[in-house]
Amino acid sequence: MVYDFKREERYFYLPGKRVKLVDIPKMTYLAVSGHGDPNVEGSEYKRAIAALYAVAYTTKMSKKGDHKIKDYFDFVVPPLEGLWWQDGVTDGIDYGHKKKFQFIALIRMPDFVNQAVLKWAIQEASHKKKQDFTNVKLLQVNEGKYVQVMHVGSYDDEPQTIAKMHQFITKNKLETDFNSKRRHHEIYLSDPRRTKVENLKTVIRIPVKVKE
């Protein structure tokens, strides 16, 4: 049976439109870092996405080749995710200055993906695509307490949903907890190339702690 993270772990990937507090365990990701406006053609972000998917699908499809990965099981490649921040912005992100975005683009991987598996997958993908994918790294993230909610609609309308999240944070005696290891986190459940803007589904997460 093919393991589908989104289906089997709905609690993390398919929240409702009501804000909830969640405790995110340690997860393993393929990761590419960069900066700049993600919407610009040829941006670092778009190149990062291409690299992530190339390595992710090479790992998944290893089942059809001679290279056998220890503890491998077949899986659906999970949705694209992103950690976002801007230098000088200490409480979330400023949607009005996308050129200043810093990001880590992510795709979750099963725990059998280690440095040796990553090295092999990068070599295979780079050879097949005739590109250099050595910018793809392996990252383990143990996020802890976040509030999360499903945002439906344009990415530019996210501030309205985030305002609702901040109301929940205040009401429940929490406070945001942004730092170098805890970022604004988004999970992209829709393909913007094939989905109407008003139907885009994005999971938004904000790191929190109990208010002192």
TrEMBL record:
Top-level division of the source organism's lineage: Bacteria
InterPro entries referenced in this protein's UniProt entry, alphabetically: GyrI-like (IPR029442), GyrI-like_CCH_Lin2189-like (IPR008319), Reg_factor_effector_dom_sf (IPR011256)
Stretches assigned to the GyrI-like small molecule binding domain: 19-209
Regions crossing the membrane: none
Any coiled-coil regions, as ranges: none
Record-given protein name: GyrI-like domain-containing protein
